[in-house]
Amino acid sequence: MTTRQRAAGAVVAVLGALGVTASAYLDWYGGRDATEIPLERLFQTSVSGAPSSYWNSMALALAVVSVLGVVGALLLSRFVLLLGWLIGAATLVLWIVMSANDDSLSVSAGDIQTGAWVCAVALLVLLAGIIGMGRGRRARDDTAERVDPVPPPAP
Predict the structure, then answer these.
(1) What is the pLDDT of residues 33-84, one digit of tens each?
(2) Which burial class, exposed, middle or buried, applies to 52 when counting CB atoms under 10 A from its CB (0-12, 13-18, 19+)?
(3) This model's pTM is above 0.85
């Protein structure tokens, strides 16, 4: 895997990470975007009201994905990018599960709005970029020509 291919995969991954963060500013459910959904919503079903600030909203977790995406791309680190992908995927999945389990809400797939769908697609783009980066040095070392050891001289 050449450095150019790794860099191209990193660029795709950054676009996906930025898409995840951009989804925070689109409507997710009931005309509310991720900045209006409390972070506690990812862990509790009976949370109501708006968060006290941006730092207590679900958008914070999605913004972390963008930061990790940019850092991972600059370092060409699949690990950092994968960590960002895991945070984004966990945020989306936990929000869906907790919203579906909330007795006061009746959520169906048709009720989920643009923001959640953009987040899901951006996570797929981020994952495609990570996969497109390849395995790195280990993959190149395996293709190197192997030299058999010289047998000891006969007695």
Answers:
(1) 888 888 877 787 776 777 778 888 888 999 999 999 999 999 999 999 999 9
(2) exposed
(3) no
Taking CA atoms, 32 is separated from 15, 47, 48, 92, in Å, by: 24, 14, 12, 15
Q: How far apart are CA 33 and CA 126, in angstroms?
A: 21
The DSSP annotation for the chain comes to --HHHHHHHHHHHHHHHHHHHHGGGSEEETTEEGGGSBGGGGT-SS--S--SSGGGBTHHHHHHHHHHHHHHHHHT-HHHHHHHHHHHHHHHHHHHHHHHH-TT----TTTB-HHHHHHHHHHHHHHHHHHHT---HHHHHHTSPP-PPPPPPP-
